[in-house]
UniProtKB/TrEMBL annotation:
It catalyses: L-seryl-[protein] + ATP = O-phospho-L-seryl-[protein] + ADP + H(+); L-threonyl-[protein] + ATP = O-phospho-L-threonyl-[protein] + ADP + H(+). GO terms for cellular component: membrane. ATP binds at K541. It is an enzyme of class 2 (transferase). This is Receptor-like serine/threonine-protein kinase. Its EC number is 2.7.11.1. SUPFAM superfamilies: alpha-D-mannose-specific plant lectins, Protein kinase-like (PK-like). It is found in: Membrane. Residues 27-149 form the Bulb-type lectin domain. InterPro entries: Bulb-type_lectin_dom, Bulb-type_lectin_dom_sf, G-type_lectin_kinases/EP1-like, Kinase-like_dom_sf, Prot_kinase_dom, Protein_kinase_ATP_BS, Ser/Thr_kinase_AS, SRK-like_kinase. It comes from the Eukaryota.
Length: 798
């Protein structure tokens, strides 16, 4: 008997296995049986051997997945799921109803999924089989529905992937929802791996394929570890290696989230000579061999996200990395692409910005489908210069005498010896300092470390715990009375949410996730889960609100809630319940400008320039473009936050007059922070928006010099007060002293001098001499000339 005939017969034998699966050893699951989603993960229906289980698995803190898993393995590897795109919450139930239907209800009792039975036939019982197949059977013990017929991303030994069915990868390593890769059938009967235009089901071109005829009937995974394409007249073995049987190893074939189809083996017993870890799956075969170079086409981002590149590690697994000057869009998912973490080159006639940028080489790297121009024959020096002179050029590729200029976003990125040539990445000069700046690390681990803001409260003794418990009970009863007497006042005209105090208490884990605190408020990190996505917020708890000012609080929240500017932190909601006044803002991953400026390394000059522009633009909006003028009253680096792309976002705006002022010894109603406070606060003058201009001027000097306004530890007493020292350096024409060891700033000396002049205008003692923030933005942009600041305080530019 020929090998082809043997495999042909084997193929049809295993095609029949799903139909005979109910005849395996099983334990009946009777009508009326049910399971509930709970955190213990032990509520399940197991197969007779205990190797597989059907039930709920908790997916982090996001919810529960109705699934089948390898039950004897430590990590409980999931091989099938029902509700992968819509997790359910604790208390949800899967039930084999008394009328023979398998139904998943959420915690509210609503049906969210059911096993679709053909011809409305009803089951007499269910069974979790030792093959990993969960079946519904009729009274004749014939299978009428089974999970083997509707796989998710995995097939198991004895399972056939029939024509018309498909495997769909998960979204990421920890996200089981549908991803962007599929193993599906073409019209000619060929199984293919392809990308989809996520989140739609539209198919892009295939990147791996087994040529077949329209006589193919399925992709078979047999008990000996072979995967082959069964056709009417022949069978084609796909994975030729010997991988044992299901008697001595667990096996699965999975279309992973990275688009690679892998055959995994997990030995049931580990011999002394076997080096494989008993706690991990080992891939014994996979396709394609190199997905980084296999994926190619006119659409989509490629194996990785836009602006990133794909590279194989030592185990031939693909990794997605960001090129120099770029950072991950989502630190928790490196496959989502990268973004620039510096200010792009400006396109202005006569601009000298080309001299502010360098090109960093990366060998054997390319983004092949982002071309704006192609030049040949040219050399590397010519290619470098033409990209530097083109403000739209982000990357240049030099190979075989060709120079390809690339524009953003870049797709299909790959690094591999087969690529050849060299990529030249445009970044600002002084990139070494950029990489060392806070929040600029390229490794995901370091980036995640920056996102962790640690706050902890230590409770010293049992007596304190007892007193705390009594206080909480008393407080809870008081809050209930307050809620009854003072219901929430909604603000329907705003796009902000009226939170309950309990919601914010739960989101912040009892106000334990401390971010920071000030004279008037304490800020906590909070977490909300919306549509299975974790959203972080900053919850500001106002500690000293004047009790009579609830109407003022509501009016001010109304004013803040209508603001909309890229340089302001967005207000998401509020709470004014009883004595509790809280505000909910966006959470900014990269912390404050103070942390950014005053760290161990000097941040990039171009980023500092961009931040100065952003703050000025945000203040001009508050002062002149809002429906109601908002004066900040406390502009300082601690109140400027940085988002994922290091864009400056002003926080705490419009709150100063809500808060009880700290009384000084002379009882003056001074608001703000020492060193940033305008003189008129102390002179009983009318307070106008010019107090913010003064504070901005002080902070602009800090941004330029990367040092605090007052540094008593300076060796030279002339340097202690930044404003005085900056004015002295300016008058003596020695601005290089202000930006020591900052070559990029000195290379941009004209701009440095202009910014110092602007700062001097902003900190004039007489408010009438200070420019408005709108004029400040025009000065920064070069729209109006910046005159020499006056030594004689009588001159004015207003």
């Amino acid at each position: 008997m020929t090998f082809g005939l043997i495999t042909h017969l084997l193929g049809f034998l295993f095609l029949l296995l799903p139909l005979l699966s109910v005849s395996q050893t099983y334990r009946n699951i009777s009508l009326g049986s049910s399971l509930y989603a709970a955190n213990d993960n032990y509520s399940s229906w197991t197969s007779p051997s205990g190797e597989f289980a059907f039930g709920f698995q908790a997916i982090g803190t996001r919810g529960f997945l109705l699934s089948i898993w390898f039950n004897k393995l430590p990590d409980k590897t999931i091989v099938w799921s029902a509700n992968r795109d819509k997790l359910v919450q604790r208390g949800s139930k899967i039930e084999l109803t008394t009328d023979g239907r398998l139904v998943l209800n959420d915690s509210q009792g609503r049906e969210v999924w059911n096993a679709s039975l053909i011809n409305m036939e009803r089951a007499s019982y269910a069974a979790m089989l030792d093959s990993g197949n969960f079946v519904l059977a009729n009274q004749n013990s014939t299978s009428i529905w089974e999970t083997f017929d509707i796989p998710t991303d995995t097939i198991l030994p004895t399972q056939t992937l029939n024509k018309g069915s498909r495997l769909v990868s998960r979204r990421s390593e920890t996200d089981f929802s549908s991803g962007r890769f599929q193993l599906r059938w073409q019209d000619d009967g060929s199984p293919t791996l392809c990308r989809v235009a996520f989140p739609t089901d539209k198919v892009y071109n295939a990147y791996w394929k087994i040529k077949a005829t329209n006589t193919s009937v399925g992709l078979v995974f047999n008990e000996t570890g072979k995967i082959f394409l069964a056709e009417i007249h022949q069978s084609t073995v796909i994975n030729p290696s010997e991988n044992g049987t299901t008697r001595d190893s667990y096996q699965r074939a999975t279309l992973d989230f990275d688009g690679v189809f892998r055959h995994y083996v997990y030995p049931k017993t580990i011999s002394k000579s076997d080096r494989r870890s008993p706690y991990s799956w080992s891939p014994v075969w996979f396709v394609p061999e190199n997905i980084c170079t296999a994926i190619f086409g006119p659409y989509g981002s490629g194996a990785c996200g836009f602006n990133s590149y794909c590279i194989l590690d030592e185990n031939k697994k693909p990794n997605c990395e960001c090129p120099p000057g770029y950072t991950l869009i989502d630190p928790n998912n490196k496959w989502n692409g990268c973004k620039q973490n510096f200010v792009s080159q400006r396109c202005e006639e006569g601009s000298q910005e080309a001299s502010l940028y360098d090109m960093i080489p990366m060998v054997n790297t390319d983004w092949p489908l982002s071309d704006s121009e192609d030049f040949s024959p040219v050399d590397e020096n010519w290619c470098t210069q033409t990209c530097l002179n083109d403000c739209f050029c982000a990357v240049a590729i030099i190979r075989d005498g060709h120079c390809w200029k690339k524009k953003l976003p870049m797709g299909m990125g790959r690094t591999d010896p087969s690529v050849g040539g060299k990529a030249l990445i445009k970044v600002p000069k002084g990139y070494s300092s950029l990489r060392q700046s806070p929040g600029m690390g390229l490794s995901e681990k370091k980036h995640q470390t920056r996102l962790i803001l640690i706050g902890s409260f230590l409770i010293g003794c049992s007596l304190f715990l007892l007193l705390l418990a009594i206080s909480l009970v008393t407080y809870h009863l008081y809050r209930k009375r307050q809620q009854k007497s003072q219901p929430h006042q909604a603000m329907p005209a705003l796009n902000v949410r009226n939170f309950t105090f309990k919601e914010l208490e739960e989101a912040t884990e009892g106000f334990n996730n401390l971010i920071g605190s000030g004279a008037f408020a304490t800020v906590y990190k909070g977490t909300f889960v919306v549509d299975n996505k974790v959203n972080f917020v900053a919850v500001k708890k106002l500690d000293k609100l004047v009790k009579e000012n609830q109407k003022e609080f509501d009016a001010e929240v109304s004013a803040i809630g209508t603001t909309n500017h890229k340089n302001l932190v967005q207000l998401l909601g509020f709470c004014n319940e009883g004595e509790h006044y809280l505000l909910v803002y966006e959470f900014m991953n990269n912390g404050s400008l103070a942390t950014f400026l005053f760290g161990s390394s000097k941040p990039d000059w171009n980023q500092r320039v961009r931040i100065a522009f952003g703050i000025a633009s945000g203040l001009a909006y508050l002062h002149e473009e809002c429906n109601t003028q908002i004066i900040h009253c406390d502009i300082k680096p601690q109140n400027i936050l940085l988002d994922d792309s290091f864009t400056a976002r002003i926080s705490d705006f419009g709150l100063a007059k809500l808060l009880k002022v700290d009384q000084t010894q002379t009882n003056t109603d001074v608001r703000g922070t020492k060193g940033y406070v305008a003189p008129e606060w102390f002179n009983n003058r009318t307070i106008t928006s010019k107090v913010d201009v003064y504070s901005y001027g002080v902070m602009l000097l800090e941004i330029l010099c990367c040092r605090r306004k007052i540094e008593p530890q300076q060796d030279d007493e002339n340097k202690v007060i930044l404003m005085d020292w900056a004015y002295e350096c300016y008058m003596e024409g020695k601005l290089d002293k202000l930006v020591e060891n900052d070559d990029d700033a000195m290379d941009d000396k004209k701009r440095l001098e202009k910014f110092v002049r602007i700062a001097m205008w902003c900190i004039q003692e007489d408010p009438s001499r200070r420019p408005t923030m709108k004029k400040v933005t025009q000065m920064l942009e070069g729209a109006i000339e910046v005159l020499v600041p006056p030594m004689n305080p009588s001159s004015s530019i207003n």
